[in-house]
Amino acid sequence: MPEPEFATPLVVLDLTGIFFFAVAGALVAVRRNLDLFAALVLGGVTGLGGGMIRDVLIGATPPAALADWRYLLVPVVAGLLTFAFHGAVGRLERVVTLFDAFGLALFCVTGALKAVEYGLGPLPAALLGMVTGIGGGMIRDVLAGSVPVIFEGVLYATPALAGALVAVLLDRADLPFAVVATGGFATCLGWRLLALVRGWRAPLPKGPANV
Amino acid sequence: MPEPEFATPLVVLDLTGIFFFAVAGALVAVRRNLDLFAALVLGGVTGLGGGMIRDVLIGATPPAALADWRYLLVPVVAGLLTFAFHGAVGRLERVVTLFDAFGLALFCVTGALKAVEYGLGPLPAALLGMVTGIGGGMIRDVLAGSVPVIFEGVLYATPALAGALVAVLLDRADLPFAVVATGGFATCLGWRLLALVRGWRAPLPKGPANV
Amino acid sequence: MPEPEFATPLVVLDLTGIFFFAVAGALVAVRRNLDLFAALVLGGVTGLGGGMIRDVLIGATPPAALADWRYLLVPVVAGLLTFAFHGAVGRLERVVTLFDAFGLALFCVTGALKAVEYGLGPLPAALLGMVTGIGGGMIRDVLAGSVPVIFEGVLYATPALAGALVAVLLDRADLPFAVVATGGFATCLGWRLLALVRGWRAPLPKGPANV
């Protein structure tokens, strides 16, 4: 399999996903009244952090995001636009959430397949696909001083893990790349959108916790 | 020295340590009323995070935990059990703390020896042994939104550093593996249990801080 | 270019920068009434964390700080001194801030040049120079339970990025090392000191955020 990050049509998809992740990240900075630098860092970390964790863990250093200037430029542009026009961007949040789901579905698949390419087994590869999708947002939330939002019932990681697992299994069945990618992508996106529309939540602990 | 992680008797010990670390991690999630996914992540991070930091720093990628499915399965099982039966598990906390001390003593030794194997000097190797033991819990606390508990007087890191240092020094003296491992393990476990029983605490700053 | 970290004059500068970073880090621990271990960890992380992130990202493992015992000793000494004499150190905070600016200017340059040496392009190399300067302090703040101070208007990262960028560009122009280093160093230090003296701040978002 060729490096998926650098094939032209996939790069456009990839950069689009990063752009919307970065917008969501920069919005967090603005809403906590953090400065421009924070908007750029939280945007960049949200857009690129998951892939960087994956690349460091599989030994693919320097990470793809540091080897191609477009991957650095896109979150900077997203951060600047969000910082400048945060009022308008904030009102478009439903759109941002939609595109964010698209980015999640994309990253869980490309992340898992990259891990497979580096020789990881199906279970770790699926896990790293999920990490590619959710890792950036988790670092963002920690840097912004809060518990990751996906720890409090938001159904976000499970669709990413499911999409990654479907992609890995289809890939092991030696199906063509288009089938592998579409299967994983549709699984994650469908589940995530259903969760958004129907208000599905992850289970919370039952009964009082013995503190 | 062979890969200590994959020799059968050591693997059983290792997985036992990871299991109890993961139980302690998942309990933190339940007590903050976080969701099932958080219990799995905090369990996994507590059990595997320290070893992952060590492996990334010494260049042993992908980390051992991503190369053997048992290392992923154990924290998942621990997290699910803790989430489902958190009342019972919480009442057994003294048992969890005991086994956690056992895990700490084990990880500081295996972590330090792995660093030695990768060519690090005695001081950095001992430090990485300590990181293997305490790193996962520190990430867990940060993800759960609090200052690491071992920053507030809990005597936990010092025994780990001492155990790692003893193991590294005995290893340099070319003693047999059983002596090396037992010496480091007993140092850490003994100190940690004494600290628990006698209520020893790490020193806090004296006098008012000029804020 | 030889390894800049191990040439004698640069090592002394480097260790001096790490010392003052570590003092600033340990002060944070004391002011939150954290224990001695926290002072050592926050000191060590502030002094060495940025370089470690850089080294892990460019694949230079084990990081330089784990290959030379002096790099471990210096933050330990800084942490112990700060913990013991925090009253006096706290009153000298203006001096610490001055030396911290010196460390920032040094690390952004050495960090960027090391990234260039490992084959990164100008933009990622400059970014990693900035990360070398600011990364340790960011981890420190997160571990201490707060949002990084450089997210709330402190003008700290921009001078580091500027200094790193100047060094990278001068290096690409094949100028002698002394010119490259001095140019980057002076850019960062001058900007940072002006920001301190004149009270310059990074821009905050305008208008109310749609929460």
Automatic annotation (TrEMBL), chains A, B, C:
<feature type="domain" description="Glycine transporter">
    <location>
        <begin position="98"/>
        <end position="171"/>
    </location>
</feature>
<feature type="transmembrane region" description="Helical">
    <location>
        <begin position="69"/>
        <end position="88"/>
    </location>
</feature>
<keyword id="KW-0472">Membrane</keyword>
<keyword id="KW-1133">Transmembrane helix</keyword>
<feature type="transmembrane region" description="Helical">
    <location>
        <begin position="36"/>
        <end position="57"/>
    </location>
</feature>
<dbReference type="InterPro" id="IPR005115">
    <property type="entry name" value="Gly_transporter"/>
</dbReference>
<feature type="transmembrane region" description="Helical">
    <location>
        <begin position="149"/>
        <end position="170"/>
    </location>
</feature>
<feature type="transmembrane region" description="Helical">
    <location>
        <begin position="119"/>
        <end position="137"/>
    </location>
</feature>
<feature type="transmembrane region" description="Helical">
    <location>
        <begin position="6"/>
        <end position="29"/>
    </location>
</feature>
<feature type="transmembrane region" description="Helical">
    <location>
        <begin position="176"/>
        <end position="197"/>
    </location>
</feature>
<feature type="domain" description="Glycine transporter">
    <location>
        <begin position="12"/>
        <end position="86"/>
    </location>
</feature>
<keyword id="KW-0812">Transmembrane</keyword>
<dbReference type="Pfam" id="PF03458">
    <property type="entry name" value="Gly_transporter"/>
</dbReference>
<feature type="transmembrane region" description="Helical">
    <location>
        <begin position="95"/>
        <end position="113"/>
    </location>
</feature>
<keyword id="KW-1003">Cell membrane</keyword>
<comment type="similarity">
    <text>Belongs to the UPF0126 family.</text>
</comment>
<protein>
    <submittedName>
        <fullName>Trimeric intracellular cation channel family protein</fullName>
    </submittedName>
</protein>
